[in-house]
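Lab notes, practical 5.
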Amino acid sequence: MSTKKHKPRPARGATKQQERDRARRRAARMEQATATRQAERKRTAQVAVVVLVVLAAVAAIVVLTKVLGSDADSDRAAAADLPANCTTAPPVPGTAPQLALPDAATAAGKEFEAVITTNCGDITVDLDGTRAPQAVASFLTLAEASFYNDSPCHRLLASGNVVLQCGDPTGTGTGGPGYGYGVEYVPEDGSYPRGTLAMARTADLEQGTGSQFFIVNQDSMWPPSGGGYTIFGNVTSGMEIVDQVVAAGVAGGGTDGSPALPLSILRIAVTEKKV
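Output from the prediction step:
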């Protein structure tokens, strides 16, 4: 059989111009088909990219939801451990504003009522400006300056003389208002009954009192020979909150340290009592 190739003959009756026109139309159709295929491939690639982006976004949302869900679960678990009357304590401020010692005369001979709002409810106290004018004047000034806001009750002494100590915005037990003053009213018999409000201090009896104070939970004794602690008021309502903290004990066990039930002062409102 012959392998010689023959050129296709023009269709009978077709002119060369018609053949050229047909060839151009075939070429145009091929170009259009090629362009169409390229466009379809481009659209397919774009759709694939969009799908990948959507899948990545969905995966990120799932992961974020799990993380946030875990945090929310932890928050709910923490809240579940609190008594029904308590909310989560706010973050510790960490710093203590430094102020000037207020004039004791602003409280001398006067009585005040202070509502100490905590994350577990209100503790109401009476303040005695006759026996302890400097301590009361200091407490009033610090309350008005929002010094105590969000500060934790950082120490629970849970053995012997049982007290709850508060008033340090740093939460360390070493913070103060930038000033100090001396001991004022100390009971001669060394008796500090339940509900007593007294100022904490350092070993310095002349300048060691500042912003920190404590609430006595059980009748306690501190001999005046040791210097004592200035009594400047007493709790009139809300001792059940202190009882809750004492009942929960010290964090990690022991008899002296941070309370296991976090209690923080949210704010303090003070009004003068008209005699």
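Observations recorded by the TA: The first helix runs from residue 16 to 80. Confidence is low (pLDDT under 50) at residues 1-5, 61-78.
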